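Sequence only, no structure available. Ideas?
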Amino acid sequence: MAAGVRRWSVILLVGAMGCAAWAGNLSVQVENAGAPVDGAIVNVEPGGPSGTTNPAGKWHENGIAAGDYVVTAWKTIAGTLRGAAANVSIPAAGNVDVSLSLVDAAWTYNLFPFAVGNAWQYDYRHSGADGRWTCTWREHVDRATTVDGEPAVVLAASKDMVPEWEEIRASTRQGFVLFTQQHGADTIKFDPPMRLGALLPMDYEWVATTTMHHSDGSPDEPGLLRCRLVGFEHITVPAGAFDTARLEVVMTMGGETNELTIWAAHNVGIVRQIERNTERKNLKLLEEYTIRGLPLRPNGPIIRPVLPRP
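Reply:
I predicted one. Tokens follow.
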């Protein structure tokens, strides 16, 4: 699972880890439709322990370093991923009890498949103060890289075959990470990287905060990313019909806030996206795509997912 999805006081966390006396005990109760869940996986993030619930749906851990965490739990039940998450503060001493009720969930790494060679082509429609226009928008995973020893990829975008931007991202079983974003001559480094947990339970909001460092000499700015799974929907786009997870995302970079509604399909990626702010609205509709290096094809999707959830 992801480390450091929420960035509370690093000093507090490091100090707590350095002192064995600064630790608390955590008890987690996991239920599904009111019944205890045996065998649910429980994780404490960032960097905390993990375990499995007993037949009574309980899991307990002693000696967790004082600090702020996200506790997640999940289990596949009758073929459907069910999960839950809660924000928890562990005191320097004492006990914390957490109850988690499982709901439908999704995995970020299934919704954003970033294998090298994967590519997506969109019908892109813009409307704003500068008028209306359409273009062919392409995104592809160009190459693998590392950031401070952490595996990542470079995602490149083009507008009518002209390069637009590159971002360094990761989407793995540890979660989704945004490391850098390049626009023209300016490359923004997110410090710390903006991270979302791997598990997306329905209606739980992951929040990541950062400081944006600009390569063009512009002053540092705050950054904020919020992401929430709000439902599962069957939609049709030029590439075909897909069962999707619908995400509501808010991204604030300096003084600009963009709201995104994303429809992403299991092992395919984004098939529809609406991005809007006070000045513009952009719509992307998937036309063609390739997964793991298969060639782009204009006559329909290569993969037709059946299940809306992992």
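The chain has a mean pLDDT of 89.
Hope that gets you unstuck.
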